[in-house]
Design a protein that fits this description.
With 149 residues, this protein is an alpha+beta fold. It has a single domain, classed as Alpha-D-Glucose-1,6-Bisphosphate, Chain A, domain 4. The protein contains three helices and seven strands, in the order βααββββββα. Strands 1-7-6-5-4-3-2 form a seven-stranded antiparallel sheet, with helices on one face. A hairpin with a 6-residue loop joins β2 and β3. α1 crosses α2. It starts with 7 loop residues before the first strand and ends in a 14-residue tail after the last helix.
């Protein structure tokens, strides 16, 4: 959803401890199980964040806050100028809160231009669904699905 302040905000509950969920945002092997094809991450404040979400499409930025297992935030943008969102120009924050059955994941994507909010809202809904399925043990097909750009 897009809140009143123009931020993309999503919450999901994942049936894993937050320490394990945290790894899905900081470990390259775990990240690419739910989002992307390859990743290069250095999960320390100021460390790089780069992954290939689709063939030839890279998201890039740097970690801003890394507070295991509660919070991770990183700047975000696209290396492809067609997106008109240069690397590091927006901010993604992920707060992990323990629940009785696992972890509440609250993702907030801020500083997105108005025309890019809807596509990122849709993207995060898709990928957080994939995170939840991966955490539950599903072996997901590659993204994007065969035959889609």
């Amino acid at each position: 959803m897009i809140d009143r302040d123009g931020r993309v905000v999503h919450e999901i509950e994942v049936a894993l401890a937050r320490e394990e969920v945290f790894e899905f945002f900081t470990d390259p092997e775990r990240l690419v199980r739910w989002i992307g094809l390859s990743a290069s991450l250095s999960a320390t404040p100021g460390g790089h964040f780069r992954f290939e979400i689709q063939p030839g499409q890279f998201c890039e930025g740097s970690y801003v806050e890394v507070d295991p297992p509660e919070l991770v935030s990183f700047t975000w943008g696209w290396t492809d100028p067609a997106w008109q969102l240069p690397p590091g120009s927006s901010l993604v924050s992920v707060r992990l809160t323990p629940t009785r059955s696992g972890t509440l994941v609250r993702l907030t994507h801020d500083r997105l231009p108005g025309d890019l909010r809807a596509i990122h809202d849709e993207g995060w809904a898709t990928f957080l669904g994939r995170l939840n399925a991966t955490a539950a043990g599903a072996d997901l097909p590659a993204y994007p699905p065969e035959g889609q750009p």
